[in-house]
Amino acid sequence: MGVKGYMAVATRWWWTLVAATLVAAVAAYLVASQTTPTYAAEVKLLVGPISADADTLRAATQIANTYAELATSTPVLQRAADSSNSSDAPTDLRERVHATASEVTRIVTIRAEANDPELAARLANDVAAAVDEVVSVGNIGPEGRIRVVDAAVPVADPVAPRVAFIVALAAMAGFIGAVVLVMLVEHLSDAITDPGELERLSGLPMLAKVIVPRHRSQAQPPFVVAALGPSPGNTSYHLLTTRLVARDERFPRALLVTGLTRDDPSAEVSATLAATAAAYSARVAWIDVSGSEQLQGWLVRPASQPAMGAVATPLVFEDASATDLQGVREILRRLLEQADSIIVNAPASADSPAALTWASACERHLFVVEVRHATRLGLRHEIESLQSAGAQTAGLVLAQRSRSAGSGSVERALAKKVDTVGSREASDAAPPRR
User: Fold this and answer.
1) Long-range contact list for 315-319, CB < 8 A, 24+ apart?
2) Measured between alpha carbons, how far is 331 from 343 in angstroms, rounded to an integer?
3) Beta strands in 303-430 (DSSP E)
């Protein structure tokens, strides 16, 4: 999967990634906010004199390390507990008291933690005083004497929990977990989610990417709803028309258009393609064989006024047998007497075996696919079925539903426009009678 594939996955699952990140961050914030805060205070002790001969300073450095270890010993911690009237045992205090010694400065730092800043400062100072009491027993030289450099004072800011850090870490963990889950679902799913994967699995070129209306009115023929096709601004359908012409140096005489599923907008795409081809001064017969009862079709031709685009006149099929290959070929032959090209919309072969009959009779075939509806198994089955019927597939058309909320009013206006023009010019085009 390339960069575009990952971007497509992120686009489809963005709400999951965002939700997982927010939930993890909020949960971490609630937990961290309810945790009892921990405060810390430090006292600094200088071991030995400020200045002396080298031997004295060297001995003071070694003694500083001893005092740091002594600060967390049981006798010292017990003295500190007695001084502060604390009931905590030395073992409990040892988890809250830490001491370090610097070999350069001979400074011993005693750090104490508590749930209250006042208690933390008092505990640190009591431990320092206990160390001084223990080491003051007996005669000690100047190298062993200690003095308080900085006494511990209460610090209002807690050292734990670090709410901002915990929230950021939890948000990152939630995002990474969501990414792993999404990639696992994508890997285990049979759905094709990447146009590049669609081309790779089918072995067919992507001829165009087109936009189709989100909703189609069932009261109007698909090609009325798709009448945006003849618009000069709709470059996708003009590009598709050009590429079909470039393949055989002419537009296919009979082109079958199918989808991979019943939800794919093959009717809208094929009808708009017919209207686009008609804009090039061609007469195109558009047939819909997706219905179970009878054939439906329109003869699409340029309007007398170029600004009006294309005009659709209904076709009438009498005694038309579309149940066998011979009957289908006869229908195509008669239509080609009055049309330059024929575009046939048919359902996927899995939904209608009749699609295979039309695939055998048509010169070329075109796949219309919405990536979110395509599956690997369905694509493989459809390609094998059409190949067994002798279909010559020209390529793929990737369809995307329009996100425009106002498409319904546009479609009604176009339907009214085509109906008006069609009724005015219907006398100029006699429908073929079969």
Assistant:
1) 315/285, 315/287, 315/431, 315/432, 316/431, 316/432, 316/433, 316/434, 317/434, 318/433, 318/434, 319/434
2) 12
3) 310-314, 341-345, 364-369, 393-401
Domain with CATH 3.30.70 in the chain: 39-150
In tens, the pLDDT along 201-226 reads 888 888 988 888 766 544 445 544 44
Does position 311 have pLDDT exceeding 80, yes or no? no
pLDDT over 80 at 431, yes or no: no
Q: From edge to edge, which strands make up the β-sheet containing 393-401?
A: 206-212, 393-401, 364-369, 254-259, 341-345, 284-288, 296-302, 310-314
Bridge partners of residue 368, in order along the sequence: 259, 397
Helix (DSSP H) and strand (DSSP E) numbers for the chain: 15, 12
- Which CATH class name applies to 39-150? alpha beta
Of 408, 30, 1, the residue nearest 224 (C-alpha): 408
> How far apart are the C-alpha atoms of 216 and 411, rounded to whole Å?
8
DSSP state of 426: G
Helix (H, G, I), strand (E, B) or coil at 222: helix
DSSP secondary structure code for residue 391 in this structure: -
CA distance 321 to 259: 23
Q: By C-alpha distance, which of 355, 297, 357 is closest to 326?
A: 357
pTM of the entire predicted model? 0.56
CA dist 100 and 108 (Å) reads 6
Distance CA 412, CA 406 (A): 11
Contact 344, 291 (CB under 8 A): no
Residue carrying the six token digits 């804009």: 279
291: tokens are 């219905």
Of 86-95, 273-282, 384-393, the least confident: 273-282
* CATH level 2 (architecture), domain 195-428: 3-Layer(aba) Sandwich (3.40)
- CB distance 395 to 202 below 8 Å: no
For CATH 3.40.50.300, the residue range(s) in the chain are: 195-428
Residues 70 and 285: their CA atoms lie apart, in Å, by: 99
Alpha-carbon distance of 203 to 397, in angstroms, equals 13
Spatial CA neighbour of 343 closest among 380, 310, 384: 310
Sign of CA dihedral 355, 360, 361, 364: positive
Owner of token pair 């006869």: 330
